User: Fold these one by one.
Assistant:
Number 1:
Amino acid sequence: MITKEQLEALTTTIRLGVGHEDQERVVAAALRRLLIHGQRGVVLADEVGFGKTYEALAITAHVCAHARQGGESFERVLVLCKPALVRKWQEETSGTHSGRGFPQYLSEDHPARELFESVRCVDSRAAARELRENGTRAQRVDGRLQVPPGLYVVNEKLLSEERRQASTLLRQVWRTQWDLVIVDEAHHYARGNLPARIFAPDGDLRNYFQEALQFDRVLALTATPFELTPQQLVDLLALVRVESKHLELIESRLKDFVRELNRFFELRGRSSTDLLRAQQVVRLQELRDGNPDSGDFESLGLQCLLRRFLIRNVKSDNERRYFVTSRCTTGFEQIHFDKLGEDLQQKLQRLSLIPFEDEHALFYLELREIIQDVTDRARNEMQAGTFISTDLRQGLSSYPQVAASKLMQRELESVVRLRALVDEWNRSGQLHPKVAALVEVLCTIAKSEIQKLRVAVGARISKVLIFNKLTSHTAPQLREVLSPLLEQSFENYLSELLNRAGISRRSLADTVRKAVDRQLAAAEREFKENAAFAPFHLVPDAFTNEEFVRHRGRSLIHVFRYPLRRRAVQTLALIDVCREASVREEETVEAWVEREVTGATINTIRDVIRRDLAISADDEGPYMRGLERAERELVIELETVKSVGIVGRYDGKNIREREGHRRNFNRRHNPFVLLVGAVGEEGIDLQEQCRYVIHYDLEWNPARMEQREGRVDRMGWGRRDEGYIDVRFLLLKGTYEERIFHTVMQRDQWFQILIGSKRRELGQLPEDAEEDVRQDEITEDGSMGALTEVEKARVMLDLRPE
């Protein structure tokens, strides 16, 4: 154990910096629970965008330092995450790039630094096999087989029993006694999804005595704990090994609170001065607060009980403004709305939104009739019915999407007729009304961003994030339609700048490419002529990434030459150089190229050679770890500098390219627009250059909508000087989509007030609610009341760290 004074001294060794005081309080609170109270784990449940990753890594570093100071071992840390987030954790644990990655906060002699110098990422069985072939093999420590010391970032799906049995290294990972386990997006485990079997092979997370993954301490990360049912929330606490007697008490208190909350809902239409409503508020406050001064654990209220094991920061101000897109006489306009302060049903009734008209309206009516016909047939034939929500939403997304749907493959006469119409529209280029609306909205945003550049010398382009759940056919069409239009808009502005400077695009591009070539050639000569660097500047034979394998025998610099040359002459890059440099002066162009294109890459290669490759091969352990780390860092850099189109994608259909698109979206040049599917709704950071968030379609779950917007509304939001994040909804008038919007907004409004954050009602909404809801079952309850400030203070749970 540790004293409060020792804990305070420990936490001063790592400072996250000005503006991160909330995160430092979370770190200190978690350490109190682990090192003073002796808990095995804690849930870090900050709202989206607070930086839970860095909080977890800071806690890891402090626990490591404390153990080493006491002469104890702390050598093995496991991070479990979704496949799409392995690269993100890889980036956050990297210390190569200046000013990026958690290791920047560690002093050179910090005990945890060696952990971050031995990071191994396992996103596939192939990666596990390569690591083993390169020397990552189990060692026997105190009679137990353990993987070598280090920090392991592992795709959680690989540790399911079936998959780990197929890999020696994965079996060893599962059998290792970990000093600390970090579980990312832990709410998925609490739902009993497959990865939960890592901790509970029998499916019961509350059974602590089964043979499962072994660890000393655990951190569970989730931004949306209250989207879970009460039972699942208790399972989340079981994941961090809360004592059984405490779990039972929390479960009881939680059930009581939810029951009284539901009773309060029944009174929500009454005046705030109504006696029954006031009495219910008092009852909720009693359950929330209990008797915290008694010193008796049994007398604690729900808030105090949860605070012991779950820490949650919430934002004090809202940096988002919300708009719906509505047609007007000149095209489309953005209508602002207040999610908490106005009647959205009445407001939307007065708006045109995106209308289905003419032949498009006939299409939608025919689609509804077909869905109803198919549903009636299935009911009459005692068969499973079609999911109305899925079929309707495909029809509300794009014509390529509905053409490829299962519904359109049926041989009913009405289906054949509608399919022929949709196929003809796709051949002729007829756009779905929502696609056409998005095109106009994006072109308008591009024009406004260009105008911003015209009037403000130091202005930069703010980017656009579009969430599109149906990525298989809608996303490709959006990219195909948007790319030439947006490219042309920026090319026209580039022509203005070039005409003003009296230089052609080709001439400027040649000048920029030559500067890239000169700087890379100079760096290559530097490495060749430096005796310490010369033996190590070539691509190592041990590298296995295909992007490097095909360049074996050549210099590391050469691998980056073509991507950097292409990147440097993208339209947005040339606009940047025209605005930042005097394009007729070679020196200023040279300086821009070094600052914006080549400098970071050359420095990364230099650091990798010096730190990771220039290690004596006589010492096999450090040499192999250096090779692993070098390849990992250089792959990250290559993904960062790859040339990307004006419209990028991050979804399950472009796995090989999506990391490059994500990394470039966070930089100044292409892509201007990023289309994101469901795989990108959690865990990734997209806040550095983005200001606009567009919901092309909707999620039923308000927590998921919050996760989407949280990709931008994060610590370090790069467009804070522009005032707010512009969040837009594209809704088709009078359709199922408008009904979803009302339902989600009502849930969001009420539960944001009641529980202090954007989340759905405890225990009321299934994980896949849309699969259970029929079109005629979506109701619009306009009787929601508003809480007074006094009621909010008495009812809302506050789990911020003390």
Number 2:
Amino acid sequence: MFWSALWWYLLVAALGLLVFPLAYRLFPGLNDRGYAFSRTLGLLLWGYLFWLLSSFGLLANNLGGYLLALLLLVGLVFWALKKHPLEEIIAWLGERKGYLLAVELLFITAFVFLILMRAMQPELVGTEKPMELAFINAIMRSPSMPPHDPWLADYSISYYYFGYVIVAMLAKISAVPAGVAFNLGISLVFALSALGSYGIVYNLLAAFQPGRRVARAFQALRGPVFVLLVSNLEGFLEFLHGRGLFPAEVPGGGPLVDFWGWLNIKNLAGASLYGEKGLPGEHWWWWRASRVIYDMNIDGNHMEVIDEFPFFSYFLADLHPHVLAMPFIFLALALALNIFLNREEAEHPFWVWTFNFRSLFEDQPAWQRTYFQFSSSTFLFSAMILGGLAFLNIWDWPWYVGIFSAAYILRRVQQIGWDMGRFWEFIGLGLLLGIAGGAAYLPYFIGFASQAGGILPNVINPTRGAHLWVMFGVLLLPILIFLISLLWRKRDGRSLLSGFSWTLGGTLVLFIGSIVPVAVVDWITKSDPSGQARRDSFLGKFGAISISELLRESFTRRGEAFFGLLTLVILITLAAAILWPKTQIAKVNLAQPDKLQDETLPGLKNSHLFVVMLVFFGGMLVIIPEFIYLRDLFGNRMNTIFKFYYQAWLLWGIAAAYGSAVLLNKINFRSALYGVFLAVLLTMGLTYPLMAVNTRISGFQARLDPQLNLDGTSLSYEEKQAAVWLEQAPLGTLVEAVGGSYSSYARISANSGQPALLGWPWHETQWRGSGEAAGTREQDISRLYTTPSWPETEQIIQQYRIRYIVVGNLEHTTYSVREEKFERYLTPVFQFETITIYQTSISDQ
């Protein structure tokens, strides 16, 4: 375990040093020149070059292919060194030894911390872990890209699999098995995310106060604390509940307000669940924190909603796309911060774009020109990095393209003022980045299918204010105090009124957008009796029997949950008011940008404005699911809440960390008061991780043979031997028992990398948007095992070109296996105790 972890650390650290000259050139606006992000940048570029060339058949998926991709990466580094010689970079590093040491200590601490958490419970069972292990093994076994689907033979993976490519590359180059690579991978992502959040806050603080380098290095630690460690308040509520606080009635029988019933967090009840010290006694108590939001249909039936946050994700340790993408999200934020802070004029504008027909024949004053003022190389790298988010977790892509574009436009507003040209620049830049990013990853998009099916209205499930504050309260309070202090400093009532007007107007538009489909369905039904079935289907999603009942319930619930919406409106209003330019348009000399900034956005640091922009985007991420959500196979807003709230946590975590550092910057009575308040708030927010770690340690100590281990392979001894044999065997379609998701089914393919004819059917349906690709495979597999007829069996083998057939305890439990036909007509190439692998005459794939 030790040597594998050390090898990964050295490999990633060396890659970061190798790529730093490129980061140094790409991030001139950042105080650390991108040093905190260089490891993430190196992994992305290395993985991208390998994947792209392998997708075109130019590189094989082996050590030679990785080294050739690395050589190309070295070529990019030499390109960067042409502008900034190595001597300059070495001198720069020599002046910042303290910062380099802080970054290294943070990376090592975070890496080791999560390695220990995983080593105490390394098993890759339950939730999504078998699926993620299957992806890693399949990528490691695939001859080239795109990798084969481990659970649908003859197809490539149709999912956001770029993160798994990077983990698989590290696994193969370090010669560690996938079961170990999984746990090293989640630990590495945690460490890189710690560096990313630290780097963003550090560079923001450097822009806020260019001096005080040592103090800044310590203050920036608030970034990983607020983003990765601080958790929602459910853990603190668990602590209170375990001590019997806020009982529903006095022991003598007198009634009290039923606080826990009013709060209504699922399963947060029952003192028997707690141990003698008031700590949770059940092992999975920590799961409840990811189910704070509570949706119901009209009949009161529960509708699953997921509200993960980073510490929960790393404690659960599903190596899922939203987790794998996290370091790269901070890299994208670094791009946006760099383009906002960098005041150097580009050598040549990337693009000149005008929307006034007369401008084709007449010169325009500088403030009317619409163009993108940064170099082509900056644009191309930005498009490639931002496009990578689509390959890592496509939910994130549009938001960070939007943040990058907004950061650039915010800089333009400071330079030349505001008019509608800035709006069109935002749209134009976003489209260009989206198109270029999509083109950079075109081979992926060509084979990608999705379950996304448009947008649906959220009619009856607004988020309650109590649940919203339990979820985000630890972040919202510092952010609100910070925003109020900035607005007080700006002292511009017109901006506040404008921000409120636009926020209220946007909220009304979203509300109307959630109600209009109901009215449309009602109109269709009345005008066309044949639309009755469509109406019934629509109402059935909510458990309603009539349009009037649905609308009545909608208004009732929105009234009951008004405090949640009010919180978001206040937050977005404050952010919009701070960002609102004081003057509509400023026609001043562009050689005096400081004067223009004073006129348009007076009294605010650039770092303040960038953070407020992040708060605004976070508010949009949270308010949108109040009214609409992405349609998928789950039929509710579960996934939209999950993915949007998660991104809001990252943005608001950065904002809370920075805002707290600014508010504590001066030593006076107000900062001392805020410091006490923040200490109490952090204690509440850190209750969950402290109790969760205690649960993990207690579970480890309770094991029969507690030993730290990183190998997550969770098979019986004979099944593990079968998987090991198949790892070395030629690729071929494999058949094993098929069953439900989140179970022990598909265990051999997940652990061997061989493509199963079918693995978890429901997951394949989710990945592809339908079960059409799987066809009748599940039924045919059942016939393969149960039919006594060899001709029928042979026909199935030939139809799907099956090479390996697994017969073990799970197959016998699932089917009435007629094994005698396999014994008579096929060759048992592996046999150990209760498991046998039969090989057919089908040749190599």
